[in-house]
Amino acid sequence: MPGVECLEHTFTVEMRSKSHVKSISISDEAHDRVLFEGNLGELTKISLTEGDVLELVGVNGVLRVDISEEQLGEALEAHRRSSPSAG
């Protein structure tokens, strides 16, 4: 709907090898937590693709997050305002 911000953001993590995956855990607790840790390695590219997908490409894999350029800009601006070096 126009004017309504979508609060759902999808993500994918694609690793080139399981040797770059540090851990994957799925909790049996009531909160059903899931943790995925790995190492993307040196970043080779950061871009916004397919409209609103932030893509971080590393030598070991790719992380994709569904986030708009506007939302990303707002987060960066908020970070700059709260940074001790901001003047």
Task: Please specify the SSE layout and strand pairing.
Layout: E1 11-15, E2 21-26, E3 34-38, E4 43-49, E5 53-58, E6 61-66, H1 69-82
Antiparallel strand pairs: 1-6, 2-3, 4-5, 5-6
How does this model look, in words?
The protein is an alpha+beta fold and 87 residues long. It has one domain. The protein is built from 1 helix and 6 strands; from the N terminus they run ββββββα. A 4-stranded antiparallel beta sheet has the order 1-6-5-4, with no helix packed on it. A two-stranded antiparallel sheet has the order 2-3.
Note the overall shape: globular
Radius of gyration: 16 Å
Q: Largest sheet, described in full?
A: 4 strands, antiparallel
Give me the count of strands.
6
Regions with pLDDT < 50 over 5+ consecutive residues?
Answer: none
- Approximately how much helix is present in the residues? 10-25%
Notable characteristics:
single chain; 87 residues; four-stranded antiparallel β-sheet; 1 helix; globular
